[in-house]
Amino acid sequence: PPDGGWGWIVVLGSFLCNVIVDGVCLSFGVAATELSSEFEAPLSTVTLIGSLLAGSYLTVGPVVSALAARYGCRRVTIVGSIVAATAFILSTQSTSIEMLIITYGLFGGIGFGMIYLPSIVTVGYWFETKRAFATGLVVCGSGIGTFVFAPFARYLLDEYGWRGTNLIMAGMILNCAVCGALFRPLEKKMCKRTKRVLPNAAVSTLSRSSLQRVNSHYIQSRRSLSFGSRVTNPATIISGSVMSIPQYSASIQSLDSETYMERSTQSKVCQVLKEMFDFHLLKSPMFTLLVISSVMTMLGYFVPYFYLTKKAAEVGVNEEQQALLVAIIGITNTVGRVISGWIADRPWADSLYLNNGALILAGVATLCCPFCNDFSSLAIYASLFGLSMAFFVSLRSILLVDLLGLSMLTKSFGILILFQGVASMVGSPLAGKLEDATASVDGTFYLTGALILASALMSVPLRYIKKWEE
């Protein structure tokens, strides 16, 4: 990898994709009350839209990973932006809350998933020594997007209503296609090799039939090998270098293309998915406990984004300041990701202790949120929540490497993100059901705080269980 050059343009494109995707997802709570009034639907049903939007783009991650491996990050990102923008345009024609759930929530989330994952993955191809720094810059787009889009969405709602807002958002999402076009595939530099050019007399002795025999031998050797095996250089099949002969070189290139096309798209996608979903890992008590802990955290992760504005409205905070509270979560989340990355790189830092401490802080702060009665106290809560949850998000992959090893990162992360995506879809509607039953938003924060705090306590014995398994 060049560790720079066009790679910084790729970082810029990836950063903007994160700003748009997470900015739109996490600012949904600003419009939740208006949608509830428009369709005369309970808040628990309305929040299902935002939960599907956020949860779908996490859940489809492994499938998108397989598509990106087959078609490349650029194509998948461009198609994803078109899918998401189309979904948002169709949502403006919704006549029922169910249609909005399908268009805005489900299909919009699938499109966002096709944007989000490739935008993260593609950065890794362009950097090696600066990979962590470049990826850190990209993921900061999430917090900045929330900081920018929350008040922006409030302004659009006041000026154009939710239908006009979704139409404008669709246009902004299409900009991800432009950003995706910047994800130029990294050209592989071929090693220079000294070629031994045969004399004309020797070339003339290699008849067409002899070349065909060599090609036949090459085809058989290629087809006898399993996918992913290393193939012997065809130049070593016969003595001397025949790669300098135009007829032979062209023939070998056509054979490469033929054998490549023989591998079906289905087999490639299935191969990647098989690698990412190794459910045998769930036989490990340590990994199972980690998955359960992460699921409990994700059940409450999006609740403050969607319900903090409702809480603020109950205590008399105006609409502009309500949107500002969500923006505060976003900007402190950005700062938290930078701080967590810096601390995690210290030799004395323990990723498990950092993760547990951050979750305890988030859980306790959320349990105290119902006692906040003005904008200032709610702003303090938003800051603590955004800062602490940044540690949880940033340390997920690091924690998996510490507990399972680098070789198991892909498989374990695929399973973890699947369960977290499902939990994201369920959490906010569940909190909404509680809010409908109690006629107070305070219950949702009690539930969320308890879930996050319980997840932190469940993670405490992970290190001891690992030693027991070994």
Automatic annotation (TrEMBL):
<keyword id="KW-0812">Transmembrane</keyword>
<dbReference type="InterPro" id="IPR050327">
    <property type="entry name" value="Proton-linked_MCT"/>
</dbReference>
<feature type="transmembrane region" description="Helical">
    <location>
        <begin position="379"/>
        <end position="401"/>
    </location>
</feature>
<feature type="transmembrane region" description="Helical">
    <location>
        <begin position="167"/>
        <end position="186"/>
    </location>
</feature>
<feature type="transmembrane region" description="Helical">
    <location>
        <begin position="286"/>
        <end position="307"/>
    </location>
</feature>
<dbReference type="InterPro" id="IPR020846">
    <property type="entry name" value="MFS_dom"/>
</dbReference>
<dbReference type="InterPro" id="IPR036259">
    <property type="entry name" value="MFS_trans_sf"/>
</dbReference>
<feature type="transmembrane region" description="Helical">
    <location>
        <begin position="101"/>
        <end position="127"/>
    </location>
</feature>
<keyword id="KW-1133">Transmembrane helix</keyword>
<dbReference type="GO" id="GO:0008028">
    <property type="term" value="F:monocarboxylic acid transmembrane transporter activity"/>
</dbReference>
<feature type="transmembrane region" description="Helical">
    <location>
        <begin position="7"/>
        <end position="31"/>
    </location>
</feature>
<feature type="transmembrane region" description="Helical">
    <location>
        <begin position="76"/>
        <end position="95"/>
    </location>
</feature>
<feature type="transmembrane region" description="Helical">
    <location>
        <begin position="444"/>
        <end position="465"/>
    </location>
</feature>
<keyword id="KW-0472">Membrane</keyword>
<dbReference type="Pfam" id="PF07690">
    <property type="entry name" value="MFS_1"/>
</dbReference>
<protein>
    <recommendedName>
        <fullName>Major facilitator superfamily (MFS) profile domain-containing protein</fullName>
    </recommendedName>
</protein>
<dbReference type="GO" id="GO:0016020">
    <property type="term" value="C:membrane"/>
</dbReference>
<feature type="transmembrane region" description="Helical">
    <location>
        <begin position="43"/>
        <end position="69"/>
    </location>
</feature>
<feature type="transmembrane region" description="Helical">
    <location>
        <begin position="413"/>
        <end position="432"/>
    </location>
</feature>
<dbReference type="InterPro" id="IPR011701">
    <property type="entry name" value="MFS"/>
</dbReference>
<feature type="transmembrane region" description="Helical">
    <location>
        <begin position="134"/>
        <end position="155"/>
    </location>
</feature>
<feature type="domain" description="Major facilitator superfamily (MFS) profile">
    <location>
        <begin position="6"/>
        <end position="467"/>
    </location>
</feature>
<feature type="transmembrane region" description="Helical">
    <location>
        <begin position="322"/>
        <end position="340"/>
    </location>
</feature>
<feature type="transmembrane region" description="Helical">
    <location>
        <begin position="352"/>
        <end position="373"/>
    </location>
</feature>
